[in-house]
Amino acid sequence: MTALPIAPPPRILSTEKWRPSRVLPQRLYRISGYSFGEPYFGRSGGNRFDAPGWKFNKAEYGACYLGYTLEVAMAESILHDQMPIDGKFLIANTVLQSSYVYRFTGDSLLLLNLTGALLKKLSGHGDLTGTSSYGVPQQWALAVFNNPARYDGFIYASRHATLGKAVMLFDRAEAKITQAAFTPLIETPGYAKAAKQFAIVGM
Prior knowledge:
Layout: E1 21-23, E2 30-32, E3 63-67, H1 70-75, E4 89-91, H2 93-97, E5 100-106, E6 109-113, H3 116-121, H4 127-130, H5 135-146, E7 153-157, E8 165-170, E9 177-184, H6 191-198, E10 200-202
Parallel strand pairs: 4-10, 6-7
Antiparallel strand pairs: 1-6, 2-5, 3-8, 5-9, 7-8
């Protein structure tokens, strides 16, 4: 049987109020190349769940991407476009030294969990985060944004750290989260362990 690519979102994704997950911002990690301006909600259309209206200069929302763990945040950011060589990631020291880990505080976030059983019930599957084409995933994100439950964002399976989960926040969540701290990536507790797991070698 040939697997079908992921289809556009079913109508009920944007109309039925699905039970949300409540997640504290303190649980999440964000890696940025900037030491200011976070959380940043992008509208470029260059990321998987960005607003599809970017094509017409009318992005419906801004998007901010975070990981449930430092490992997921690293895999989805500095390793996103990298290919290993002989099982190792050779990353420029300038990149490692100019990357920052942000932690946040604030009110509980209302997130739709687009993994597991709910994703299957919505006729979705791993291609939501596995496909290299962003067109359909952006439609799914817009459907969640338009849901009357007004979710702050959603949880999804990390493409680059497949045992982990990541979060995309809509800019409507900006008022709920406050930057609590940021540290250079290489000075962040847990970095050495994560770098060893991924076999990151600075160059």
